[in-house]
Amino acid sequence: MLVIKLQREEARIEAGESEGFRKSQLIEWYLEQIVADIETEAELVQRKMICEKIIDKLITIDHILIELKTSESQEEGTEQEKVEPDNILVVHPDYVIDDNF
């Protein structure tokens, strides 16, 4: 679901309609998709944490997603070092989604 959304967003980037999809935007989009299933604020926080972990796994272990570092995330000596950077995410160009999905 997350990878498919990013691939669709990449098509918009190529068409010049978008600058990219940031990690926070992807998480927010996912939570909007499942909002009907969420009953409590605690469940929302839990789903958000799970989504963040899945995205991190897709980046670091599966290598399906690639984080594009922006100049603002590379600044040194700023408060951004304490906060996780909100980098743009793209799907690895060699990754092919199964058509049965």
UniProtKB/TrEMBL annotation:
Keywords on record: ATP-binding, DNA replication, Helicase, Hydrolase, Nucleotide-binding, Nucleus
One Pfam family here: WHD_MCM6
GO molecular function list: helicase activity
Protein family (similarity comment): Belongs to the MCM family.
GO cellular component term, pick one: nucleus
Primary location recorded for the protein, binned into one broad class: nucleus
Domain of life: Eukaryota
Entry's Gene Ontology BP terms: DNA replication
Protein name: Mcm6 C-terminal winged-helix domain-containing protein
Domain (Mcm6 C-terminal winged-helix) ranges: 1-97
Subcellular localization(s) per the UniProt record: Nucleus
Coiled-coil portions: none
